[in-house]
Amino acid sequence: MDVDFCVVGAGFGGLTTALRLKQAGHTVALLEARDRVGGRTWTETRDDGLWIDRGGAWIGPGQDAIYALMKEFGIASYKQPTEGDAMMFVEGKKYRYNGTIPLSMSPWAVANIGTVFLELTQMCKQIDPHAPWDAPKAKKWDQTTWAGWLDRNTLSKPARQLLEHSVAGLYTSAASEISLLFVLYQMASAGGPSFVLGVKDAAEDERVVGGMGAIHRAICNELGDSLHLSQPVRSIAQDADGVTVRSDDMVVRARRAVVAVPVSIVSQINFEPMLPMDRSFLQQRMPSGAVYKIALVYDEPWWRADGLSGQSFGAGSMASLTIDASTDRESPAVLCVITEGPEARKMTKLSEEERKKGVIDAVAARFGEKARTLTDYVEQNWTIERYSGGGMIAHAPPGVLTEFGPSLREPCGRIHWAGTESSAIMYGFIDGAVRSGERAAVEVMEHEAMKVAP
């Protein structure tokens, strides 16, 4: 197959890249390893019409790219139900509250959380999301882990537990694994800690009607036979005139390639010649973590009658976080359970039945016996997804961003990069993946128009 451009990976980054290139009049081949599109988003639609987002699902303020894509295809969104109280379990104590944090915690803990939040806000202002490694204190922050920084800045044990798990959980890893500079970069890319920590009026609080699959389908309809599923790319060779992309069943010749797979698994592809050293080392040093996303399906959202929002948090539990993930229909209802990092790694060692029992027991201990009346249990273990590489966001351990960060978006000859990890804005979010696709499409067209040499 001979085309203008080849795109590898049909998550939101690859889908958007291929869409924009085709809309610009170019021929495109989009190769996807799985038998489905969506990457780390995946909507399962059941026979009864219920759709469940088994991966990324929420959108919110400031995510203009994903909203623009939805508007382009006439896809609506709806507000996730949030009325009622949330629950938090910290240091063995239960807090029922309305808002962002339980103000019924000790005044010392609340004050400590507020101080840390203000400090993070000020630190984020020093970060240029396009070049966080150039921040005045970049090296110092990159030599510090998120856990180490919390050791020095949280004096309240409840505050420490809440902040450690609420942030490290986003990266599906332990706080000791994550660079402070990376945490600040990711927060700054979303406008600061308010959005990342889910502060009211700044959090991802909307869902797509029909799930993320509604967007996938619209894009795929426009791409037509440019999309090729079940084609894991094995090698990409580049020369002075173009690139040759090979899967088990296809050979694609193109002027340039856009690789839009998670940075943690790019090394599964054999590049010829080898990628520049910094890019190769970056890929070796940006891992993903472990995460389970589980849907508990009920006939009705019984927690609302109890005055609860469905949101709860308990560090160290097999149900770390619960969220009301019901659709825009009144029935059935869905309570989403997300467990990340060390707890998720422990869960992988259990049998399916042991995990199911542990999760339901944890939710019932929190919400009461009604939690046992579920009609279905849908478990998604992203940790073992070969073409995801683990959790929902790749993170940078200490020392990585300042040494190898500039390689995140830098083209390697005729090979360009997309995917949420390559986005300077909304890093790690679906919106970031869409933005990366928009950027990559413009980038390859501009390079080709200027005849930029490899």
UniProtKB/TrEMBL annotation:
Location of the Amine oxidase domain: 13-445
GO-annotated molecular function: oxidoreductase activity
Keyword Transmembrane: no
Entry keyword annotation includes Oxidoreductase: yes
InterPro entries, per database record: Amino_oxidase, FAD/NAD-bd_sf, Flavin_amine_oxidase, Flavin_MAO
Superkingdom: Bacteria
Annotated positions binding FAD: 32-33, 233, 421
SUPFAM superfamilies: FAD-linked reductases, C-terminal domain, FAD/NAD(P)-binding domain
Protein name as catalogued: Monoamine oxidase
